[in-house]
Amino acid sequence: MRAMIIVQLIIYCLIFTLMVRFSVRGGAIDGLYFYPKSVQDRAIEIGLSTRETINRKRKVFMTEFYIVMLVTLVLIIGFWNNISDFKTAYMYALLFLEVMNWYDGIVIDEVWVRYSKFWKLPGLEDVPYVQTIKQMLKKRLFLTLIWVIGAAIVAGIVVLIGRIIQSL
User: Fold this and answer.
1) How many whole angstroms separate alpha carbon 100 and alpha carbon 104?
2) What is the pTM of this model?
């Protein structure tokens, strides 16, 4: 059972990574919404993008991202693991959301973004674009609290879908 959860967590984080990579398929400039506001402002100033383009791309990505990650999580919990009670669904959702949160902060931000040349924007090499460790930890701790609530929403969806399917 433990091995299966590890496999599922790896798949979930892989989907997360693929979503981020897909969003920047045309280069890092496509993911300018991931960068701090100071970097965005400078990119706009030198003509790399516009505020409207950045906002539009953010909305599209975040909508697609939340849908894909939510559907994937509901499928893993409710269908792959066949969980239908709220408490168990909540614990699974919390585990997956917290692993995703810290994976994003450590693997995506601290390893991929910090050490990959891919994320350096032309004309902005002198502008710091990576969070400090302190900033990353603060953000991840805040999101840890948010996902306590988010997990309850996911668990509620899993239970609701399970009941609807049982009643058919």
Assistant:
1) 6
2) 0.93
